[in-house]
Write a structure and sequence with these properties.
Layout lengths: L9 E2 L2 E3 L6 E3 L30 E7 L3 E6 L5 H12 L6 E7 L3 E8 L25 E4 L12 E4 L19 E7 L1 H8 L3 E2 L8 E2 L4 E8 L3
Antiparallel strand pairs: 1-2, 2-3, 4-5, 4-13, 5-10, 6-7, 6-13, 7-9, 8-9, 8-10, 11-12
């Protein structure tokens, strides 16, 4: 059994939770191999009420390429504030995308290349909303089976993962979306397709070749 840690959740048809390192079985609608993604799952399908003045941007520099993301403080204020504190502290520098599941999500922000888990600040409340779904390209907070356990780890959805949305998730809470990729989605998808394995410490879905987050910094809109 893998060590207790704050992972996202899912292997094909099971939520993995770190509270006691237990497993909660659930049915998940995973696509058939080679099934085309639905166009409505793409980045232009998020709610439209975001104002330009409220937008905040970050640049995620990885060993695979750069990804620019727009954060949504008007939809998830505590989540965005928490994420930006880690950004401003340089917490993410040198961490990795430690959990990658093709056609699902890529998760990172908590482990070093040596798979050592970093110490974090206190958990934050879950700000998942039914009108802010886990669509392709959105950023969301990873957590344990405790809905209010998110700290630093985040993930980027590779498709619309409805089973993570509030109201669709088995625990009812869902996973809090706080932004979306606005440039570099091809990099995210490339990371999503890397070869993975079970690491010597028992962690599953770890990239064979580390995908390093070199830095995450605030960025301008342009």
């Amino acid at each position: 059994m893998q060590r207790c840690a704050k992972y996202l959740v899912i292997l094909a048809a099971a939520f993995l939770v770190s509270s006691g390192c237990s497993e909660l079985e659930t049915e998940i609608d995973m696509p058939e191999p080679g099934e085309a993604r639905v166009e409505s799952d793409r980045l232009d399908s998020e709610p439209e009420e975001v104002s330009e003045a409220e937008r905040v941007y970050v640049l995620i520099e990885t060993s695979t390429g750069n990804v620019k993301a727009e954060l949504w403080p008007e939809r998830a204020p505590e989540t965005v504030d928490n994420f930006l504190r880690y950004v401003d502290d340089g917490f993410f520098d040198g961490t990795i995308f430690h959990r990658v599941i093709d056609d699902f999500m890529i998760q990172g922000g908590g482990f070093t290349v040596e798979l050592r888990e970093k110490s974090t600040d206190r958990p934050i409340k879950n700000e998942a909303r039914p009108d802010v779904p886990n669509r392709a390209g959105t950023l969301a907070m990873a957590r344990t089976s405790d809905p209010h356990s998110a700290t630093a780890q985040f993930f980027i959805n590779l498709k619309h993962n409805q089973m993570l949305d509030r109201g669709k998730c088995p625990d009812g809470w869902g996973y809090a979306v706080f932004g979306k990729v606005v440039d570099g989605m091809e990099v995210v998808e490339e990371i999503g397709g890397v070869r993975t394995h079970t690491a010597p410490n028992g962690m599953d879905d770890v990239p064979v070749e580390p995908v390093v987050i070199k830095s995450i910094r605030r960025a301008d809109a342009e």
